[in-house]
Amino acid sequence: MAASALAYLHSDASPPIIHGDVKSPNILLDKNHMIKVSDFGASKLTPKDGNRFATFVQGTRGYLDPEYIQKGFLTDKSDVYSFGVILVELLTRKKAFFCEGNEEERNLANVFLSSLKEERLVDVLDHHMWNAERRDLIHEVCDLAKRCLSIVGEERPTMKEVKEELERLTRPQNQPCVMSNPEETESITGATLNTHTIESTDYYTSEKHAVRSIEEGR
């Protein structure tokens, strides 16, 4: 899953990499239904003396971390915020940014958080998803998205924590934690996908591609 790839870039790549422009158009499926994270044009290598640095704000409207916009500091939690927006897109089947309405109404993340606060979540979720069988699961995914979208970056989970939480939520009951073979699992949208374990070599390739893209952009 995309969360696994981002968790690898943040926690296991050397040096760690911040993607900088996480959005649904940059998450692709190859012919084997393997998820690939693409477009490392805005990516940054994490500084050795810390996990954030000042940079010119760039990214895609609707996915940008508000703390990054306000303070100009890009961190791994900026990617977490953007991934939270993707979760909300899946839950609502709506785009991250609308062309109509005021600024507050055009931002999907703001609409989602407002609906949670006002206890009218059912008004924004995709109606095909909201049923008795999946209600508890959807509530947990919504809670995870809410934490990813926290205004304060330090209050957001890490991508590793997001990955582990999604793996727990999508794992069939009584299924072992380690899956060595391809399995058919149900996504939060209810669609059945043929998912495969992504080997470390795939992450290594993504890491090298990211580093090369960053260096070529200098």
UniProtKB/TrEMBL annotation:
It comes from the Eukaryota. Residues 1-169 form the Protein kinase domain. It holds the Pfam family Pkinase. Coiled coil: none annotated. GO terms for biological process: cell surface receptor signaling pathway. InterPro entries: Kinase-like_dom_sf (IPR011009), Prot_kinase_dom (IPR000719), Ser/Thr_kinase_AS (IPR008271), WAK-like (IPR045274). GO terms for molecular function: ATP binding; protein serine/threonine kinase activity. PROSITE patterns: PROTEIN_KINASE_DOM, PROTEIN_KINASE_ST. GO terms for cellular component: plasma membrane. The keyword Zinc-finger does not apply. The keyword Transferase applies. Gene3D superfamilies: Transferase(Phosphotransferase) domain 1. Signal peptide: none annotated. Keywords: ATP-binding, Kinase, Nucleotide-binding, Receptor, Transferase. This is Wall-associated receptor kinase 5. It comes from Acorus gramineus (Dwarf sweet flag).
